C-alpha cells in the first residue's frame, strides 16, 4: 500500500500535505488492524514508513542547484491475500464452502483496507478546510485526488481475480466503498485513525513497527471503551 505520489516539503504550508500522508497511512493501518479484527480475520504483519529524501535539482535559471526534500509514505505488508490461487476461489474442487467464504471475506477486507487510506485523507482534508464530507461528495473515483490511484489500481487487480466479469465491478466496488465509508464514519474508529496519524506525523523520520501502531490503536480503543463508546 503505497501513496501514489510524493510531496515536496520545502515550505511551512507543506506540513499540511505531510499531515495528509500521515492520515492516509493511518487509515490503511487502522483498517488492517481493527477492521480485520472486527471480521475475526487472522492478524497480519505491517509496518509504516514515512520517508523524507533529500535531492538536488537545478533551479529555474539553471544557475544553481536547490536543495529539495521529497516525502513519501507506504504500508509494507498488511495484505491477507498473498499467493492465494484466487482464480480458484469459487471452485469446489479446491475449497470447501466454508473455505470459499473465508477467502472471500479476506479478499474483500484487503480491498476495503486499501480504500480506507485515501478516504481517511479525504475526511481529514474536509475537516481541516471546514468542508462537507459525505459519500456523494467523495465517491470512489474521487479517491484519485487523495493519493489513492495506486490503491485503486490494486483494487482493480483484486477485482479482476475475484470477479472476472467487468459488468459486476461497479456493484461490488460500490458495496465495498460503503463499508469503507462506514468504517471511517465510526467515531471510535475515526478517533483511532486521528491518534495514529498524529503519532506518524510526530515520528515521520522512522519506520513505525506493527507493534508500535497496534499499541497506539489499542490505547485509543480502550480509552473510547472506557468513555462508553462501542467499537464493534
Task: Tell me the layout of helices and strands.
Layout: E1 7-8, H1 15-38, E2 46-58, E3 65-77, H2 97-128, H3 149-162, H4 169-185, H5 187-202, E4 207-208, H6 210-226
Antiparallel strand pairs: 1-3, 2-3, 2-4
Helix pairs in contact: 1-2, 1-5, 2-3, 2-4, 5-6
Features:
232 residues; globular; 52% helix; 4-stranded antiparallel β-sheet; Methane Monooxygenase Hydroxylase, Chain G, domain 1; alpha+beta
Would you mind describing this structure in some detail?
The protein has one domain (7-226): Methane Monooxygenase Hydroxylase, Chain G, domain 1 (Up-down Bundle). Helices cover 52% and strands 13% of the residues. It has helices at residues 15-38, 97-128, 149-162, 169-185, 187-202, 210-226; strands at 7-8, 46-58, 65-77, 207-208. It has a four-stranded antiparallel beta sheet with strand order 1-3-2-4. Strand 2 (46-58) and strand 3 (65-77) form a beta hairpin. The chain starts with 6 loop residues before the first strand and ends in a 6-residue tail after the last helix. 32% of the residues are buried. Mean pLDDT is 82; it is low at 6-13 and 54-68.
Query: What spatial form do the alpha-carbon principal axes imply?
Result: globular
The amount of helix comes to 40-55%
What is the CATH architecture annotation? Up-down Bundle
Largest sheet: 4 strands, antiparallel
Q: Output the helix-strand order.
A: EHEEHHHHEH
Mean pLDDT: 82
Give a short synopsis of this structure.
This protein has helices spanning 15-38, 97-128, 149-162, 169-185, 187-202, 210-226; strands spanning 7-8, 46-58, 65-77, 207-208.
Amino acid at each position: 500500500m503505497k501513496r501514489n505520489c510524493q510531496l515536496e516539503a520545502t515550505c511551512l504550508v507543506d506540513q499540511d500535505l505531510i499531515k495528509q500522508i500521515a492520515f492516509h497511512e493511518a487509515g490503511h493501518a487502522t483498517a488492517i488492524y481493527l477492521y480485520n479484527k472486527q471480521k475475526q480475520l487472522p492478524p497480519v504483519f505491517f509496518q509504516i514508513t514515512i520517508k523524507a529524501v533529500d535531492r538536488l535539482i537545478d533551479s529555474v535559471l539553471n544557475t544553481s542547484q536547490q536543495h529539495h526534500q521529497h516525502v513519501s509514505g507506504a504500508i509494507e505488508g498488511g495484505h491477507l491475500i498473498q499467493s492465494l490461487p484466487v482464480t480458484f476461489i469459487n471452485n469446489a474442487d479446491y475449497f470447501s464452502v466454508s473455505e470459499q467464504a473465508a477467502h472471500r471475506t479476506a479478499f474483500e477486507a484487503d480491498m476495503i483496507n486499501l480504500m480506507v487510506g485515501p478516504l481517511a485523507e479525504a475526511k481529514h482534508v474536509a475537516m481541516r478546510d471546514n468542508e462537507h464530507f459525505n459519500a456523494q461528495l467523495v465517491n470512489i473515483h474521487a479517491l484519485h485526488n487523495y493519493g489513492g490511484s495506486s490503491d485503486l489500481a490494486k483494487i482493480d487487480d483484486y477485482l479482476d481475480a475475484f470477479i472476472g466479469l467487468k459488468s459486476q465491478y461497479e456493484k461490488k466496488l460500490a458495496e465495498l466503498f460503503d463499508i469503507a465509508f462506514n468504517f471511517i464514519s465510526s467515531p471510535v474508529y475515526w478517533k483511532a485513525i486521528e491518534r495514529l496519524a498524529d503519532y506518524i506525523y510526530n515520528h515521520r523520520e522512522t519506520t513505525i513497527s506493527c507493534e508500535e501502531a497496534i499499541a497506539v490503536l489499542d490505547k485509543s480503543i480502550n480509552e473510547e471503551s472506557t468513555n462508553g463508546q462501542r467499537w464493534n
